[in-house]
Amino acid sequence: MKGIILAGGSGTRLRPLTGTVSKQLLPVYDKPMIYYPLSVLMRAGIRDILIISSRNHLEMFRSLLGDGSHLGIELSYAQQDEPRGIAEAFLIGEKHIGDSPVALILGDNVFHGAGFSTTIAQAAARLDGCELFGYPVNDPERYGVGEIDAEGRLLSLVEKPVKPRSNLAVTGLYLYDNDVVEIAAGLTPSARGELEITDVNQAYLAQGRARLTELGRGFAWLDMGTHDSLLQAGQYVQLLEQRQGERIACVEEIALRMGFIDHEQCHALGRDLGDSGYGNYVRELARRAAATAAAESSSAA
Description:
Helices cover 37% and strands 23% of the residues. The protein is of the alpha/beta class. Pfam families: NTP_transferase. Keywords: Magnesium, Metal-binding, Nucleotidyltransferase, Plasmid, Transferase.
């Protein structure tokens, strides 16, 4: 499965913070926002990832993340001239997708919860059309809302309904089979001139090939589109990291645990991060991994 992170848009709701920098490069407590969606795809085992952003910001992402080889993944970049809807990502990324299924994640979403990697892997394994992820909210009229049956099959999908049939907001993570490119190419732009992701999902729903997994109790989904939500996301990450002693969306840690890099490569990454709390954390991860490997080698001998 290929991955796409949509990190475009002008971030107007976050001005003046986004006057010269991409929203997805703003700090969310101790790391850039882009680390959070990138970590989701990496935890799902996706290693070939396209980052889509505006012309003014692409070089900033390249400077931060490079080609991804230091994390054992492959990153490429593509330009979105102006925001024309989420579904345009499939047209921009057509060559990247090729004949593969694809996971699309929005660059300003945080997902956090126990067993999330397993949840995504299970959804990818049964993929036959599209797999959406829903999160219960108190104000579903502000979101695209999905209604599902007992088996998770999507029964209805309405954008910002006046009378919602459920409280399940469709989040910014989507899994699709390869038909999504053709479906996106056949869409009629909305009145705003955009290719709407809801129209893509409606096409799969009409075919009876749409499912939605509910992300329930013990899970957090945060959309960092406003000053308040950006601050709340940072506070959430700060609280958990300080209480638990583990870092959320540490891409170096995920690369190590997924086997994309070894403990020596991880230690080198930590060294490059300098004498910061984040760098110290990455070096300690590498030290523990090295100790575990040495103990296993000694036991085998």
